[in-house]
Amino acid sequence: MITATSNRELAHPTREEIRLEGVLHALSDPMRLRVVRELSAVEKELSCSDFELPVTKSTTTHHFRVLREAGVIQQIYRGTAKMNGLRRADLDLLYPGLLDSVLAAADGQALRLGED
């Protein structure tokens, strides 16, 4: 795992350390899947404050940490903002089609349930 060298750097797994079960676990939570769907839709980095999740700040922080530690997102500080980006290239290389399939299924479910 790439470890943090200062308080402003966050530890991320290397591509080789990303495990399928960790990715699937991270994507299994509705709030975390919502974050990934939003990142995928905009195809750019978003700050934590760009997400409006119906949970407490501490729970939001937990969800971002799970996604980062699983290798689904990358987080970096830019000034005072913590920016979040989807690690699509790494995930697509390791597990071709997985992210697209999960996102398509989530979009279909949201339509079926009238959530979008």
Outline the structure in words.
This protein is of the alpha+beta class. The protein has a single domain, classed as Arc Repressor Mutant, subunit A. The protein is built from five helices and three strands. A three-stranded antiparallel sheet has the order 1-3-2. β2 and β3 form a beta hairpin. It is globular, with a radius of gyration of 14 Å. The mean pLDDT is 92. Residues 12-106 form the HTH arsR-type domain. This is Helix-turn-helix transcriptional regulator. It comes from Streptomyces sannanensis. Keywords: DNA-binding, Transcription, Transcription regulation.
Determine the CATH topology.
Answer: Arc Repressor Mutant, subunit A
Judging from the principal axes of the Cα atoms, what is the shape? globular
Range of helix content: 40-55%
Overall number of domains: 1
Structural class: alpha+beta
Strand order of the largest sheet: 1-3-2
End-to-end CA span: 36 Å
CATH evolutionary superfamily? Winged helix-like DNA-binding domain superfamily/Winged helix DNA-binding domain
Pfam family, one: HTH_20
Domain HTH arsR-type: 12-106
Protein name: Helix-turn-helix transcriptional regulator
Keywords: DNA-binding, Transcription, Transcription regulation
